Amino acid sequence: MLTYTPNTPQSAPKTRENVWLLLLLVFVWLWPGVFSHDLWKPSEPKIYTVIEEAARGTFWLSTFNGNPYFDISPLYVQLAVFWQKLLHPWAADAYSSARFASVTFTTIGLLGSGMAGYRFLGRHFGRNVVLILIGSAGLLPIAHFVGEKSPIFAGVGLALWGYSIANKQVLMASLIAGLGIMLLAQSAGIIMAAAVLFSGCLLWLHPVWHNNRLLTSLSSIAAVALPLCAIYPIALNLTQHNAFQLYMQTHIFGSFGGTHTFQAAFSLPYYLKHVLWFAFPALPLAAWTVSRGKWLQTRAGAFAATWCAVYSVLLTLTPERNQDLLVFLLPPFALLGAAQLDNLRRGVAAFLNWFGAMLFGMAAVFLWIGFVAMNYGFPVKLAERAAYFSPYYTRDINTMPMIVAIVFTPMWFIAITRRHIRGRQAVTNWAAGMTLVWALLMTLFLPWIDAAKSYRPIVAQMQSSLPENVQQDLQTGKTCLFTQPENLDARIAWKQYSTLPINVKNSGCQYELVTYNPQAEAAPTQGKIIWEGRRPRNKQERFVLLERF
Predict the structure, then answer these.
(1) Integer Cα distance of 373 and 231 in angstroms
(2) How far apart are CA 424 and CA 433, in angstroms?
(3) Cα(31)–Cα(438) distance, integer angstroms
(4) Is residue 18 a part of any domain in this protein?
(5) Peptide bond into 68 cis (omega under 30)
(6) 72 in helix, strand or coil?
(7) How far, in Å, CA of 89 to CA of 104, rounded?
(8) Domain boundary among 453, 473, 494
(9) DSSP string, 430-492
(10) Does residue 1 lie within any of the structural domains?
């Protein structure tokens, strides 16, 4: 007699995972690049100046050179001030302390995204989301440098977390998502913040989300978010009415402007070009989930699709072309990528693992060889190229970074030798490889990079070009050094790295610091050139120190 036994669905094979290993990897990933270097362009010098002024200014109004500045969340600025007061100077320098604000918001974003993966997809999937995120190159500068985009990442992560529990824990969902919307309103404007609620309204049209519980959650989220978002403009209006009017007229809509300056543009080609590297491997893993079919019939799939559609339209229309704005899409990409990660074909997982091993392994070997070349002159050709790209670098080998680099390199090589690689292990190895290369870059190469990106060597040369008696006269006020108020880079650099005062009001000073673009402007001729120079390989910015006739 023949019997029929139906096929039973096979669950993903169990893997031995320890939460503490994930926490250790995230902890290691968070810190390289935070310590022991000067302010780097494009955003650090300007944002740090805002933080400095906030430490001695008003709580609600951030300023840059005394003028209102609304391009960064006041919560970020005040958190950076808090970390500076707490850690500087006994635990960290002033620059590193300010970067703790970015680390804090990035941690919140990782927590929110991981919890969204756990609540949407189930146990272990939250880890997958976090691993995909820290393996994405686009998140590195947002997390480790002073900048205005880490609160956006935190806001997106909290919004995802809120929606993931909206059908079960309405009150908690409203609090978490409301906080995320507040962060987005302060960091990216009310249009980007309102899109969180708009995405929820569109979700209600989907059969999986079409229930009264979602409507209740949306009402609760709005009830929490609206008062939180109103706190900042109301407080600004009460304390700085003129600044409030400027905020409403030029910045209330974020990148789109304000009530008097609203604008839009077509930025789709720019973001399509940058999303390929910014969101790798999150984007291809999300594409794999989409190719599996029926993903749109799940709560997570419907939510991620709706979110990505809404924010893709907004990024297409925004006049601001900044690759870091793709952080709006990175967490939902990671959520989609994690959904089918355990079902990734063995061949695809093996290829991803092999590609990561080759890419990061070759990068690690190159970084070690480059470290030897720049410090000991061998290989000669590589040492010459290192000196060409960073001519101000002098040998600087610190014990702690060397220990970190020496310990991490063999640990990664041991980690990638595991057999029977599946999707989760491949992504783990990728995240570990990204962490290794970033750690080596920010330990072995950090002094070399800092010498090329920092303004400190240029300011030191400018100051040393002045005779001792002139420097004393500048200190005592017998003479003065002038620069135009619009020379923002020169003003910030001189303020941060020079011991001599600089004047932006008295244009009759005997000495003047001029900044110009040699590709578009003629060299200044209104005085005797005492010194001129530029940062290495920067052909669009040149500094000239003049003694006026």
Answers:
(1) 55
(2) 14
(3) 10
(4) no
(5) no
(6) coil
(7) 19
(8) 453
(9) HHHHHHHHHHHHTTTSHHHHHHHH-SHHHHHHHHHHS-HHHHHHHHHTSS-EE--TT-HHHHH
(10) no
Neighbours of 365 (CB within 10 A): 11
| Structural domain span for residue 335 | 33-340
CB 537 within 8 A of CB 454: no
Please check whether residues 376 and 506 belong to one and the same domain.
Answer: no
Rounded Cα gap, residues 296 and 290, in angstroms: 8
Q: How many CB atoms lie within 10 A of CB 378?
A: 11
User: In degrees rounded to 5, what are phi and psi of residue 69?
Assistant: -135, 115
The H-or-E segment that residue 511 falls in is strand 511-516
Do both 471 and 489 map to the same domain? Answer: yes
- Same domain for 89 and 198, yes or no, is yes
CA–CA gap between residue 129 and residue 106 (Å, rounded): 14
| Strand duo 511-516 + 481-482: pairing | parallel
Q: Are 440 and 408 in contact (CB under 8 A)?
A: yes
Kindly state whether residues 411 and 462 are assigned to the same domain: no
Residue where one domain finishes, among candidates 321, 340, 359: 340
Contact 338, 428 (CB under 8 A): no
Residue 529 in domain: yes
Q: Based on the domain organization, do 298 and 363 belong to the same domain?
A: no
List, in sequence order, the alpha helices (H) in 343-445. Answer: 346-376, 380-389, 399-415, 423-441
Written as tens digits, the pLDDT of the chain (549 aa) is 455 454 444 444 455 556 778 888 999 999 999 999 999 998 999 999 999 999 988 788 999 988 999 999 999 999 999 999 999 999 999 999 999 999 999 999 999 999 999 999 988 899 999 999 999 999 999 999 999 999 999 999 999 999 999 999 999 999 999 999 999 999 999 999 999 999 999 999 999 999 999 999 999 999 999 999 999 999 999 999 999 999 999 999 999 999 999 999 999 999 999 999 999 999 999 999 998 878 888 999 999 999 999 999 999 999 999 999 999 999 999 999 999 998 888 888 889 989 999 999 999 999 999 999 999 998 999 999 999 999 999 998 888 888 888 888 888 888 777 767 788 889 999 999 999 999 999 999 999 999 999 999 999 999 999 999 999 999 998 999 999 988 898 899 999 999 999 998 888 889 999 998 888 888 888 888 999 988 888 888 999 999 886
| pTM for this predicted structure | 0.94
Both 448 and 477 in one domain: the answer is no
Q: Which is nearest to 176 in space by CA: 225, 216, 214, 129? A: 225
Instruction: Lay out the sheet containing 511-516: strands in order across.
Output: 481-482, 511-516, 542-548, 527-533
The number of folded domains in the chain is: 3
Report if residue 405 sits inside a domain: yes
d(CA 21, CA 23): 5
Which residues does 208 contact at the CB level (< 8 Å), separation at least 6?
A: 297, 298, 299, 302
Residues 429 and 464 in one domain: no
In 3D, which of 99, 221, 197 has the Cα closest to residue 150?
Answer: 99
**Based on the domain organization, do 307 and 445 belong to the same domain?**
no
Cα separation of 382 and 372, whole Å?
A: 10
CB of 280 closer than 8 Å to CB of 105: no
Spatial distance between the Cα atoms of 257 and 271, rounded to a whole number of angstroms? 20
